[in-house]
UniProtKB/TrEMBL annotation, chain B:
Top-level lineage group: Bacteria
Record has Coiled coil as a keyword: no
Name recorded for this polypeptide: NADH-quinone oxidoreductase subunit J
Family listed: Belongs to the complex I subunit 6 family.
Organism: Alcanivorax hongdengensis A-11-3
From TrEMBL, chain C:
The protein's role, per its UniProt record: NDH-1 shuttles electrons from NADH, via FMN and iron-sulfur (Fe-S) centers, to quinones in the respiratory chain. The immediate electron acceptor for the enzyme in this species is believed to be ubiquinone. Couples the redox reaction to proton translocation (for every two electrons transferred, four hydrogen ions are translocated across the cytoplasmic membrane), and thus conserves the redox energy in a proton gradient.
Alphabetical keyword list: Cell membrane, Membrane, NAD, Oxidoreductase, Quinone, Translocase, Transmembrane, Transmembrane helix, Transport, Ubiquinone
Keyword NAD: yes
Compartments where found: Cell membrane; Membrane
GO molecular function: NADH dehydrogenase (quinone) (non-electrogenic) activity; quinone binding
Organism expressing this protein natively: Alloalcanivorax marinus
Name of the protein in question: NADH-quinone oxidoreductase subunit K
E.C. number(s) listed in UniProt: 7.1.1.-
GO cellular component terms, A-Z: NADH dehydrogenase complex; plasma membrane
Protein family (similarity comment): Belongs to the complex I subunit 4L family.
TrEMBL record, chain D:
Membrane topology summary: Multi-pass membrane protein
Subcellular location(s) per record: Cell membrane; Membrane
Keyword terms, alphabetized: Membrane, NAD, Transmembrane, Transmembrane helix
Major location category of this protein: membrane
InterPro entries membership: NADH_UbQ_OxRdtase_su1/FPO
Family of the protein in this entry: Belongs to the complex I subunit 1 family.
Entry's transmembrane regions: 55-78, 90-111, 123-143, 163-182, 216-236, 242-263, 275-297
Name used for this protein in its record: NADH-quinone oxidoreductase subunit H
Upper classification of the organism: Bacteria, Pseudomonadati, Pseudomonadota, Gammaproteobacteria, Oceanospirillales
Any Pfam family hit: NADHdh
Top-level taxonomic group: Bacteria
One GO biological process term: aerobic respiration
Gene Ontology molecular function: NADH dehydrogenase activity
GO cellular component: plasma membrane
Length: 699, 188, 103, 298
């Protein structure tokens, strides 16, 4: 606990002075937070950041405070460390509920998950920032997560990965350095990853984004600028150095290796004749004109160009072997291990290489070759595609969800979503009470639904009949959560579309709804109605959502709002006797796009309100007294995101095996279809409209 | 007059400097923006030579035009970032020679011709704009209209050439639009 | 006054020369267009200088400048149209690889 | 003196705008917040992205600020309160505003990140959409004034403001001005929910402070331009001319903010489609109507 400390762990280097004091004060009164896992989680926990005088920052670059809400999964923990590293100093860590993530420095302030604690923590944090934003010798942030492991790969054979530099056992090419840290999937996309000079041709391949291969890395909020400093060191900026001295230190070894390698590669390019057998001169227009001396083409009079034998087989003849075409143009010596005997060029000529000639062939690249294997965009142009990660803490997406999109300019060619906070159902034996608490805590966006689900399953296993009185209160609690959850989704939509009014209004209503009793909820009806009426008539919103995110025909196993918005009668509540008693009637939209989902959620908010009004005061589900603590039970609940089914076995009060089937596990698979071929903005809206909760994805 | 000479000289040097930079940088965006600044410097020369309307027009048109140039450079170059350090030129000696000869010829014509009497005073800017308008919609009406039609034709032709065959709806050539209309409108 | 005219003409001439160099030496169609733009810029400088220092009362001089600017815009539009079409067809706008465009 | 006054106006306007913006987003009215925010930016690290085009990265925010200030330089706030009342003032404003694009392309390319890059190029598409809608309404106002002098345009509205004389032009210009200032709902290049800040994403510290200031000043400049071209500039009863300019400018600026506050971000394809299929025909119609009015009504 750092209450006694007077400086921040993330202080900026600098001797305290009057000016710096002012700056510290200014920082303290202008808290911008990066919320991990996301603002919607903070809202779901009932935290009102605006009331605590905190602003939500869209990027780590813009944040002073890293606000961690609840426990983080291992993967998210690592991603958070990188986010923290991207924040400019002075920076502070505020942990609410849960322990400080292991890969981060100690939290500057920690508190429990409640609004009062948050307010109090904010005050403490302000004091700390005002006093300790600058320190003469701040601690360095170093973490194994940020360390970069360098591995060596063959540019041609991605399966060849070595720890040491050397040459490829398959083709004899020099291996090139690549960062390997933390990337489980690095092998697939090595072009985009960290090896800036790995070979000439890779640069060329990046037409649209060619000036750097680090985009993917760099923008991953799963990346660090600390890691980047390794490169900075080689290139520039003393001022960053003073601040990140320690980080640079651990990079030394790696960087030098990297540098060495670059030098080597350049060597090939600049002195191609080194191990060269000879040079011939060809006419760029007429490939059949091959001379041993420089001169002019007898057919067109153009200057002949120097050309190393064995270079151009792919240009003219060898289409099938385009695996290596990029190399041929560069350095003949890469081809030591190749067998060129099947090519009709004569490789044995030994010519002098004329350096005087003003067109050195090592500089000439065939663009036809470079673009030949590039993917074609929708408009038929060969363009580079760039794989860009969105998440896991992306402002427009649910926190914990990592979306990997392959961008073709502003369009998405393919993408997939993974959850970094997926629930792990392989549980050890736990007491039933603990199990309920754990399950509820594991689902921050819908704790009541899962608490209810667990209670029902356990009660069913124990052979208890549903008690109508209890069920009524539970149903009311569930419906209240549904209203709050849909409002949370609206707030998230507002964040995604920079629709500030919607974000503010929906978030305020969500906070009011969360703990409201029946009477308060009924009192909120006009407010909810006016919000909905207003949204349905907001200009641009319909145009923005209509036709976006339409599901492909025959999508299987849709659930919840997503299913009902495409006209399916899928609702676990229909089968529930209690709901029939309450007069539940399902209504469904039919268009199946994002606009239909929005309207469906509107309808459901009002339906749920009606239900709560009939059902009475919401009561948090509590496990009823069970007398037979063994058996197998199965329960189904229509959570805000759709039907979830829990099957569990308990023995003597211990839950021994669990099987959870949730809506989001099904929906996350839809993402790939939804984003393909869309514009970036539309793709994100489509993903957002599914209202995925990455926590409810079972791994 | 000294002031005028000074500004014409400074902007002239800037235009030449940026013009040379176009072909000396490996980064394609830099190349396009260097051309932009070269053209903008030419626009500033117009201003220094008291052709206010033309100068402002040049500065305006080139901003859009060269930005579009930049995106095409990035699209169509193998190494837009210039990291590879590759050489994207050919027949260098010949080109340098041709350039030098062209420049030398023009310079010698400039130096050794008798340009006749020099007019010291230019009409003021408001007057110029007005007179240019009358010229454009009076005596040079035909020229002006021809230019307008040419640009319209070029826009349509370029778009037609650029759109893929049998694949309506995707229009990359759209980027080309814009310059022409602007000129017509601005010159009213 | 003559020195200013000469200064402008010299600038125009050098821009012209740089443009010629660029248009001839570059292999990429877009870069060649840049060279052409510079050539036209050189011409523009001359036109404005002639108008200003020789016949400021004749506005056809300014009109001429406008026409040249139009030509620049047309050149861009057509050039990019061709570039896109070629890139679509061949995957290249390199002139080294444009043997089929030879007459 | 004039220069100082204009700069002061811009700064005060930017400050007021920032206060109101914070009020809209957080619901709290705190007059010192923008100053504190500026000060805290000064205290934070300025991080350079990895392998940036440093020249562009550093130049972009400054260029944007310069553009915004230069644009304001030709706008008369009062009959004699204008830095340079150019004979081609209306055109000059267009010319300067075209460099917003240049600045954003630099900011997009410079930091070497995918989000920034997409943001920068997106603005090029946005320019294709809005630029005609900036130029054509201004042309119509210049037609009525029979001059490109901004002060003459203001004086031409002595009897009837252009907002009444050519309401169509006003609406188009107002919308295009928001798009030019890339504020919500046209914040495609920054798009916090789509590109995590886009062109802003990699800026921190002092550079970010300059960028934010430039964006605010840009709104003020465009509001002042709207005032000059459509709201009769400094004209108004009782109050001194500069006060009218200031009031009108701020009113326009705040209404620009409010539009963004109540609207979601537009789709890029819709923006292009609507501007070319609807906006430009309407702008041409506006020019035609104004031309007829000038001929018919003496």
């Amino acid at each position: 606990m750092s209450e006694a400390a007077t400086t921040l762990a993330g202080a900026r280097k600098g001797r305290p002075s009057i000016l710096r004091r002012w700056v510290g004060q200014a920082l303290a009164r202008n808290l911008s937070c990066l919320v991990v896992p996301g603002p919607e989680v903070a809202l779901a926990h009932g935290l009102d950041l605006a009331a605590a005088d905190m602003r939500i920052a869209a990027t780590p670059r813009d944040a002073t405070v890293l606000l961690i809400v609840g426990e983080l999964s291992q993967k998210l923990d690592e991603a958070t460390a990188v986010l923290y590293a991207q924040m400019p100093r002075p920076r502070a860590i505020l942990v609410l509920g849960g322990s400080a993530p292991s890969s981060l420095p100690q939290a500057d302030v920690s508190a429990d998950l409640s609004q009062t604690e948050l307010m109090e923590a904010a005050t403490r944090l302000q004091r700390l920032l005002a006093e300790g934003a600058f320190a003469a010798s701040p601690d360095d942030f170093d973490s194994s997560i940020l360390q970069t492991k360098t591995e060596y790969v063959c540019p041609m054979h991605p399966e060849v990965v070595e720890d040491e530099p050397g040459s490829c056992p398959k083709c004899g090419m020099d291996l090139v350095a690549r960062e390997a840290g933390g990337d489980s999937d690095a092998g697939e996309h090595d072009e985009n990853r960290g090896h800036e000079h790995h070979e000439h041709h890779h640069d060329h391949k990046h037409e649209s984004e060619g000036h750097d291969h680090h985009h993917a890395h760099h923008n991953d909020h799963g990346q660090s600028h600390e890691r980047h400093h390794g490169h900075h060191q080689n290139h520039k900026h003393a001022h960053d150095h003073e601040q990140h001295q320690g980080d640079d230190d651990h990079e030394h070894a790696h960087c030098h290796e990297h540098e060495d390698h670059q030098g080597q590669d350049h060597g090939h390019q600049q002195e191609p004749a080194q191990e060269q057998s000879g040079t011939e001169y060809i006419c760029p227009m007429h490939p059949e004109v091959v001379r041993s001396e420089p001169g002019r083409c007898p057919k067109c009079g153009m200057d002949l160009e120097p050309h190393k034998p064995g270079e151009d087989e792919s240009v003219k003849e060898d289409v099938s072997e385009h695996d290596h075409e990029h190399h041929h143009d560069h350095s003949g010596h890469d081809h030591d291990g190749h067998d060129h005997s099947d090519h009709d060029h004569d490789h044995d000529h030994d010519h002098d290489h004329d350096h005087d000639h003003d067109h050195d062939s090592s500089g000439f690249m065939s663009m036809v070759e470079v673009t030949k294997d590039l993917p074609r965009s929708a408009d038929g142009l060969a363009m580079d595609w760039l794989e860009v990660p969105f998440g896991p803490c992306f402002p427009g997406l649910p926190g914990g969800l990592k979306l990997t999109l392959t961008l073709d300019g502003d369009g998405v060619t393919e993408g997939q979503a993974t959850s970094l906070v997926a629930m792990n159902t392989s549980s050890e034996e736990v007491a039933v009470e603990t199990f309920i608490e754990r399950l509820a805590a594991a689902m921050p966006l819908a704790p009541v639904s899962y608490r209810l689900l667990a209670c029902r399953a356990i009660e069913q296993a124990a052979g208890l009949e549903p008690d109508p009185a209890v069920e009524r209160g539970r149903a009311a609690a569930l419906e209240r959560e549904r209203i709050a959850s849909h409002l949370g989704w609206l707030a998230q939509l507002g964040r995604q579309l920079s629709f500030v009014w919607l974000t503010r209004r929906a978030a305020a209503l969500q906070l009011e709804t969360q703990r409201a009793d029946r009477e308060q909820l009924v009192a909120l009806r006009p407010a909810l109605q006016s919000l909905i009426a207003r949204l349905e008539h907001t200009p641009l919103l319909k145009a923005r959502l209509k036709g976006i995110g339409a599901l492909p025909h025959g999508s299987q196993d849709l659930r919840g709002t997503v299913a009902r918005a495409s006209g399916r009668t899928e609702d676990a509540r229909q089968a529930d006797a209690m709901y029939r008693e309450l007069g539940f009637e399902m209504r469904a939209e039919s268009a199946g796009d994002a606009w239909a989902r929005l309207r469906q959620r509107h309808v459901e908010i009002m339906t749920s309100l009606d239900l709560v009004e009939v059902a009475g005061d919401p009561e948090l589900p509590k496990l009823r007294a069970i007398d037979n603590p063994s058996g197998t039970g199965e329960a189904t609940v229509e959570t805000p995101r759709g039907r979830a089914t829990l099957r569990l076995t308990q023995e003597r009060g211990q839950v021994v095996s669990v099987e959870l089937d949730s809506a989001c596990s099904q929906h996350i698979g839809l993402v790939a279809d939804l984003v393909e071929g869309q514009e970036l903005g539309d793709a994100l809206v489509a993903v957002g409209s599914l209202d995925l909760s990455p926590w409810e994805v079972t791994s | 007059m000294v002031v005028q000479a000074f500004f014409v000289g400074v902007f002239g040097l800037a235009a030449i400097g940026f013009g040379v930079a176009v072909f000396r940088t490996a980064s394609m965006v830099r190349s396009a923006l260097a051309l932009l600044f070269s053209q903008a410097a030419v626009g500033c020369m117009f201003l220094a030579m008291q052709a206010e309307f033309l100068g402002v027009l040049q500065i305006m048109m080139m901003a859009t035009e060269m930005s579009i140039m930049a995106i095409f450079m990035v699209m169509f170059m193998m190494d837009p970032g210039g990291l590879g350090g590759m050489d994207m030129s050919h027949q260098k000696r010949f080109s340098i020679g041709a350039g030098a000869i062209a420049a030398a010829t023009a310079i010698s014509v400039a130096l050794f011709s008798d340009w006749g009497p020099i007019v010291a005073e230019a009409p003021d800017a408001a007057m110029q704009t007005r007179e240019l308008g009358f010229e454009m919609l009076g005596r040079s009406m035909l020229v002006f209209e021809t230019a307008a039609i040419t640009i319209l034709t070029a826009m349509i032709a370029a778009t037609a050439v650029a759109i893929p065959v049998r694949q309506p709806g995707v229009d990359t050539g759209k980027l080309d639009k814009g310059n022409g209309d602007k000129e017509q409108e601005a010159s009213k | 006054m003559t020195p200013v005219l000469i200064l402008a003409l010299l600038t125009g001439a050098i821009l012209f020369g740089v443009g010629i160099y660029g248009a001839l030496s570059q292999t990429n169609l877009v870069m060649i267009m840049m060279g052409v733009e510079l050539i036209l810029a050189g011409a523009l400088v001359n036109l404005v200088a002639f108008w200003r220092f020789l016949h400021p009362e004749v506005y056809a001089g300014q009109m001429f400048v406008l026409v040249v600017m139009t030509v620049m815009a047309v050149e861009m539009a057509v050039g990019f149209g061709v570039a896109i079409a070629r890139f679509r067809a061949k995957g290249s706008v390199e002139m080294e690889e444009a043997g089929d465009l030879k007459g | 003196m004039t220069v100082a006054l204009v700069l002061l106006t811009l700064l005060v306007g930017a400050w007021l705008l920032a206060v109101i913006e914070a009020w809209l987003t957080t619901g709290r009215l705190r007059p010192v917040a923008p100053l504190l925010a500026g000060l805290s930016h000064l205290g934070r690290e300025s991080i350079l992205a990895r392998k940036p085009d440093r020249l562009f990265f550093e130049t972009a925010p400054v260029l944007l600020l310069v553009v915004a200030v230069l644009g304001a330089a030709v706008l008369p706030l009062a009959p004699d309160l204008v830095i340079a009342d150019l004979a081609t003032g209306a055109l000059f404003l267009n010319a300067v505003l075209a460099y917003v694009l240049v600045s954003l392309i630099m900011a997009g390319w410079g930091p070497n990140g995918a989000y920034a890059m997409v943001g920068g190029w997106r603005f090029l598409g946005q320019l294709i959409a809005y630029s005609m809608l900036i130029v054509m309404p201004i042309t119509a106002t210049a037609m009525r004034a029979e001059s490109l002098l901004n002060s003459a345009i203001v004086e031409s509205q002595a009897g009837l403001w252009n907002i009444v004389y050519q309401p169509l032009g006003f609406v188009l210009f107002f919308i295009a001005a928001i798009a030019l200032a890339f504020r919500s709902p046209f914040d495609l290049p920054t798009a916090p929910g789509e590109l995590a800040g886009g062109v802003d994403a990699e800026y921190t510290g002092v550079r970010l402070a300059v960028l934010r200031l430039a964006r605010l000043v840009m709104v003020i400049t465009l509001s002042a331009a709207t005032t000059v071209f459509f709201l009769g500039g400094w004209q108004g009863p009782l109050l001194p001319p500069w006060a009218w300019s200031l009031i009108k400018t701020l009113a326009v600026a705040v209404s620009m903010l409010l539009v963004g506050f109540y609207l979601p971000r537009i789709r890029e394809a819709d923006l292009l489609g609507w501007c070319w299929k609807l906006g430009i025909p309407l702008a041409l119609l506006n020019i035609l109507i104004v031309g007829l009015l000038i001929l018919v009504v003496p």
